Amino acid sequence: MSSRRQRLGQVGERLAAEALAARGYAILARNWRCPAGEIDIVARDGDTLVMVEVRTRRGEAFGTPEESVTPAKQARLVELGQTYVQERGWDGPWRIDVVAVQFSPAGRLERLTVIPNAVEG
Fold first, then answer.
1. Of the N and C termini of the chain, which has fewer Cβ atoms inside 10 Å?
2. Nearest partner of 74 among 38, 37, 121, 31, judged by Cα
3. What whole-number distance in Å separates Cα of residue 29 and Cα of residue 17?
C-alpha cells in the first residue's frame, strides 16, 4: 500500500476514534491484529462491545466508503469479531459498526458517518 494511502487511512481512523469517543464510545483498542486480520477499532458502547471498521475515501471515483464493505469484507469482519470475543472471553452483546470517512479530491473532510450494526453475522 502506498504511504499516501496509508496516511489517509490513519487520518480516517483517528477522526473515527474521535467521533466515536464524542458519541460516548469507550475506545479499548486500535488496530487489533490476529492471524485472520485486523480490527480498526474496538470499543464499548454502553454494555455492548463494538468492532469498528473504518473506510476512508478521497473522492468517489471508486465509490463511497460504505460501498467498499463488500460481502467478503463483511464475512471477514464477522470472523474477526468472533475471534476477538472468544480470545477475550466476552459473553455480552457485541456488534460491528462501520465508520465512513469521505474526503474531497482536494483532501477536505466532506462527511463522517457512523453506521451502527452495519454488518450482521
1. N
2. 121
3. 10
pLDDT tens across 63-101, in order?
889 999 999 999 999 999 999 999 999 999 999 999 999
Which residue range(s) make up the domain with 18? Answer: 3-119
Q: Specify the amino acid at residue 7.
A: R
Contact of 37 with 96, CB cutoff 8 Å: no
Give the integer Cα–Cα distance in Å for 31 and 101: 17
**What's the CA gap between 40 and 54, in Å, rounded?**
6
Domain count for the chain, please give it: 1
CA torsion sign for 59, 60, 63, 64 is positive
Rg (CA), the chain: 14
CB atoms closer than 10 angstroms to residue 41: 22
| Residues 12, 53: Cα–Cα separation, whole Å | 11
Element (H, E) at 12: helix 3-22
Cβ-contact 42, 84 below 8 angstroms: yes
